[in-house]
Amino acid sequence: MDFLPSDISTYAETYTSSESALLYQLNRNTRAHIMAPRMLSGHIQGRFLSMISWMIRPRRILEIGTYTGYSALCLAEGLTDDGRIITIDHNEELEGFARSYWQQSPWHDKIDFRLGQAADLLPLLDETFDLVFIDADKRNNSLYFDLIFDKVRQGGFILADNVLWSGKVVEPVKPADLDTVAVQAFNQKVQNDERVENVLLPVRDGIMLMRKL
Length: 213
Hints:
This protein is α/β, with parallel strands linked by helices. The protein is built from 8 helices and 7 strands. The chain has a single domain (about 5-210), classed as Vaccinia Virus protein VP39 (Rossmann fold, 3-Layer(aba) Sandwich).
């Protein structure tokens, strides 16, 4: 995920608003105690997610892929007073860890965690979303996009994480590298979809930002 020189990354973080004390603690403890900490959104991406949420002021947010709950807290910052974020993950072992931090936040009653496989749970949702963040298994990006598209309001936004996949998307790809192939196919799918306007942002590991037309 390190596309920029380390000194440029450090400079960018220096001139980005700080994460809260709670997010800092969650960030640190995820890296210290949880496997695969690279899955954490982290400081700059977290502030980006918060900024997008504040810009949109969503009433309903859907997050696919909770991990330790950092991004859910960031997205929740911009919710309306009656807003709610539904976040889905299949890893029951991390649920208690995430909830322990949510409970310390002002948004603890706005975060609705759903445990299970996203492909099974998404068709059951009877909501219209203002903002969706897809950050789960990359091989199913296209499936999740298809399952949620009709649940996003016209003019609503969809974000997809890791669309640069550590730079592998621009390297020669072996057919056996199914994750990279899936990310490339998803990016092309979005680019060809006339129902959205999109921009691929080189933020951290790449974020695809889409607006439903």
